[in-house]
Amino acid sequence: MQPRERILEKTFILFHKQGYNATGINQIIEESKVAKASFYQHFKSKEDLCVAFLEQRHSFWFNELLKFTSNAEDSNSKVLASFEFLVYMNEKENFRGCSFLNILSEIPSDNVKILNVIQSHKSNLRNFFRDILKDELISDHVYLLFESCIIESQMFKSNELIEQSKKIIQTLILK
Length: 175
Known about the structure:
By secondary structure, the chain is mostly helical. The protein contains 9 helices and no strands. The longest helix is centred in the N-terminal third of the chain and has 24 residues, at 46-69. The mean pLDDT is 96.
């Protein structure tokens, strides 16, 4: 594995386990087994590393979501499958929640560089539901339920409200 990939792989683990602020560049360098010069050849700063991490996370997360929902027969099934995807991710990642929101809570409000990546990810997710449902009001409602499920399941380490949201969605989109 090339140094850049090792750095990003270790960053994924450390940001997931410790958070953004508690993870230092020196720890990433040491655990990635790269030279400091090699790190700075690929990433000018921790902020640039975070942007690269979030871009990689975005690609991974959306590819998984699209794979998970690809066999759904219709738009209603696709929306419900997206909530099943949350259950799957919670089980896979031990209720860690959303990497984007976790980092958002740790960065200063004026960090536009990282904020733009987070906003782009959330806009893409909102558009994912709009493309499926073709109704802006209902799709925004579903998007907000989806986002709140991520937070609630992380906080309570439970998929209960995801299951409740699927019932709510069925009343919204099957009217």
